[in-house]
Amino acid sequence: MPKGKGPQGKRITLKMAKNSIRVLFNGRRRLELSKMGIAVFPKCLLELADVEEIDLSRNMLRKIPNIIEKFQNLVWLDLHSNQIDELPAEIGTLQNLTFLNLCNNKLTTKGLPEQLTRLRNLRILNLGLNCLETIPTTLGTLRELTELGLFDNSLTIIPKSVKKLPKLEKLNYKRNPLPEFAKEEEPIDTIKRIESLYLVEKKDLCNSCLQTCQGERDELHLLEDMPPGSTDKPNFASLTTPNSTARDNQEEWRMK
């Protein structure tokens, strides 16, 4: 199998990684490797371990290696939309981390290490769209959390220690099998409704999908241009008013 193909995904070289660094308005350096087809954490990134932010979202990563502990300057780490099923214990050494996005992965309860609670400066944590059945009560020690995403999992209870975090402003645990959501059964709706709307740019669509979308948009515009009160109703102009003939001849009938 040729190098860089198959399960290894796209091979990221040190040169490519260096060219992917962006300096933000606040002076931080962000390593942007989103949507690169990466399946294995590139070891060459160790040469750039002093960056403050890393975006590895929308790849094919299954594991985050323990060498993540080398990135001690990390403040912001985005790993959403991969295939990660567990985190290494070394994630807890990133004491400067304030933002951690793990949304849309395959994390299970066992895949959350106890050391996650050592991230005492963490303010935003997104664990939505995973396979979590329970949440460790020890997450209640993350007292700097202001936002916590737990939506679209398999949770049946949210620990009180988590709900009562002192600085928590946003807690999203929608679409979990929680008892409070089962109290009132929603009436059956025979009309299909859109629950989620995903927006993409034209450049991310294949030609076939783009043509389909443009065709549906043209049909919608035709419907919008139709005048109100369409005159498509059937017209029976040749028919006489009911009983009109009988009314004209009723005197003749009576005489007969």
From TrEMBL:
Taxonomy, superkingdom: Eukaryota
Compositionally biased region (Polar residues): 237-247
UniProt keyword list: Leucine-rich repeat, Repeat
Segments forming domain Disease resistance R13L4/SHOC-2-like LRR: 69-172
Location of region: Disordered: 225-256
GO CC annotations on file: cytoplasm
UniProt keyword annotation of Repeat present: yes
InterPro entries associated with the record: Leu-rich_rpt, Leu-rich_rpt_typical-subtyp, LRR_dom_sf, LRR_domain-containing, LRR_R13L4/SHOC2-like
Family annotation (SMART domains): LRR_TYP (SM00369)
Keyword Repeat: yes
Any Pfam family hit: LRR_14
Descriptive protein name: LRC18 protein
Organism: Bombycilla garrulus
UniProt gene name: Lrrc18
